[in-house]
Design brief:
By secondary structure, this protein is an alpha+beta fold. It has two domains: about 350 residues, Outer membrane efflux proteins (OEP) (Up-down Bundle), CATH 1.20.1600.10; about 90 residues, no CATH class. About 60% of the residues lie in helices and about 10% in strands. It contains eleven helices and six strands. The chain has a four-stranded antiparallel beta sheet with strand order 2-3-5-6, with no helix packed on it. A two-stranded parallel ribbon has the order 1-4. Helix 2 runs antiparallel to helix 5 and helix 8 runs antiparallel to helix 9.
């Protein structure tokens, strides 16, 4: 079972803008690469320029990632392996045919069945023989071995199919994380660029005040220091965008170095209250593919335990047994009491049983199968206890993010009014440039924190849907047809 990722809101709480960009970079997986924008008109390709990015929606990104995900392909390979076991189980109840043919030297044999001048161990080789055996056995009573083997394989296939669903939902959640991370980082960058322009204007005003003797160089140095710090934040957001878009490009199968730009320009800010947590826990206990996978896996293991036990019983069968031999230097004997091993025919129907006796091997295999069953049962108990905790963790993340968006929205509005008032006072010559610099910092921090809270809410809803198993239907719709 896979644990949910650590809530984003907990990671971002109390962090300045610079840490926010860094954390967004760590939350979005991928490989570094160039980042660019789609040109408005076709232009000659520059060999040294980075490849143009591809714009994709979230659904298109998930669909493309599911079509080529190594994790999903591995789960599908496991499914095919169980289907192979299912074929083996079906074959247990079908006729088993075994043929064997050998060719060898035939010693000389003269005379007849009463008298011969040749010895049984005569070294005189004057011909060759061909010897073949055939065995056709149809089980008729196996003490339930065949039924248990077939049911074990059937439940194993169902568990493997649920395993494919598990991997698909995990891949989809990973794509959503990178996708919304890129959108959030891009929105933060656009805001920081706007703040940088405002800081540049404040620096220009301060330079004029210094020239007129209304401000000191200290005020100018303070603004320039803030601008350098702001430039660092912008660089970090650009790195975050690059990581996320390159990761999306890799996961969706784009050519090397081609990034995927989300079609959404901004995070959805329609924050709404969510239903009670009990509804999500109920959905998780019913709809999580992990539970279905465990149920089918446990039933398959139970059947396998029975298979190992039944193999200790005798196998009753009907069939045809026969062997045929022909030698070039011998005559066929007609006496039914005398059989030449190198020249004879013996074929006929039989009924019998087959039994293998060992001393501890079978008991050890039964114990091994029971241990595998106990492991799955323990994992089921862990899931019953752990998945509701995962749901609660994701639920609390969304609730916290919802609250943070409200308070940070108000904080941002107040910081904006503070910045406007400080800027007006400085323009009128009655303000303190130090207060204006602090206003810029608080303005940037509260807006960035607000956008991070919105990201925590948006992706938190995706995590909550995943924890409750509510994303299965969506992923099934976007995934390639089942093999």
């Amino acid at each position: 079972m896979h644990c949910l990722r650590r809530p984003l809101a907990a990671r971002l709480a109390g962090t300045p803008v610079v840490l926010a960009a860094t954390l967004l970079a760590t939350l979005t997986c991928g490989t570094a690469g160039a980042q660019g924008t789609v040109p408005p008109t076709p232009a000659p390709a520059d060999p040294g320029a980075p490849p143009a990015p591809v714009r994709m929606s979230l659904e298109d990104s998930i669909r493309a990632a599911l079509g080529r995900s190594p994790e999903t392909r591995q789960a599908i390979a496991d499914l095919e392996g169980f289907r192979g076991k299912q074929l083996q189980a079906l074959g247990i109840g079908r006729p088993q045919i075994e043929l064997r043919t050998v060719v060898g030297p035939s010693p000389r044999a003269r005379g007849n069945q009463v008298s011969s001048p040749d010895d049984q161990y005569s070294p005189d080789i004057t011909g060759a023989f061909v010897y073949g055996t055939v065995s056709i056995i149809q089980p008729i009573f196996t003490w339930g071995l065949i039924e248990n083997a077939r049911m074990a394989a059937e439940h194993g296939v169902r568990a493997a199919q649920a395993g494919v669903e598990v991997k698909n939902t995990e891949v989809a959640l990973q794509v959503k994380q990178a996708y919304w991370g890129a959108v959030a980082a891009r929105e933060i960058r656009a805001f920081l660029l706007d703040v940088r322009d405002q800081v540049d204007q404040a620096i220009a005003r301060t330079e004029r005040l210094v020239s007129g003797g209304y401000a000191t160089d200290i005020d100018l140095f303070r603004f320039r220091a803030k601008r350098g710090e702001l430039e660092k934040y912008i660089n970090l957001t650009e790195r975050t965008i690059d990581l996320a878009t390159q990761a999306l490009g890799t996961w969706t199968g784009q050519p090397k170095g081609v990034a995927v730009q989300p079609t959404e320009e901004a995070l959805p800010e329609n924050v709404k209250p969510i239903p009670a947590i009990d509804l999500y826990v109920e959905d998780a206990l019913v709809g999580r593919p992990e539970f279905y996978q465990l149920r089918e896996g446990i039933e398959a293991r139970r059947r396998l335990v029975e298979v190992e036990r039944k193999q200790a019983y005798p196998l009753f069968f009907v069939g045809i047994l026969g062997d045929v031999a022909y030698a070039t230097n011998r005559d066929r004997l007609q006496n039914p009491f005398v059989i030449d091993p190198l020249y004879h025919t013996a074929v006929g129907p039989v009924i019998g049983f087959k039994y293998s006796l060992d001393f501890g091997i079978r008991a050890g295999k039964v114990k091994e199968a029971e241990a595998e069953l106990q492991k799955l049962e323990a994992l089921r108990d862990h899931a019953i206890d752990g998945i509701p905790l995962q749901v609660r963790d994701a639920y609390n993340t969304v609730v916290e993010a919802e609250r943070n968006t409200k308070v940070l929205s108000e904080a941002y509005e107040n910081a904006k009014h503070w910045l406007i008032a400080s800027s007006s006072n400085v323009d009128l010559g009655v303000g303190d440039p130090d207060d204006l610099a602090d206003a810029f910092v608080q303005y940037a921090r509260t807006r960035a924190d607000y956008l991070q809270a919105v990201y925590a809410y948006v992706f938190g809803l995706e995590q909550l849907a995943h924890a409750a198993g509510q994303d299965v239907a969506e992923v099934q719709r976007l995934a390639p047809p089942k093999p």
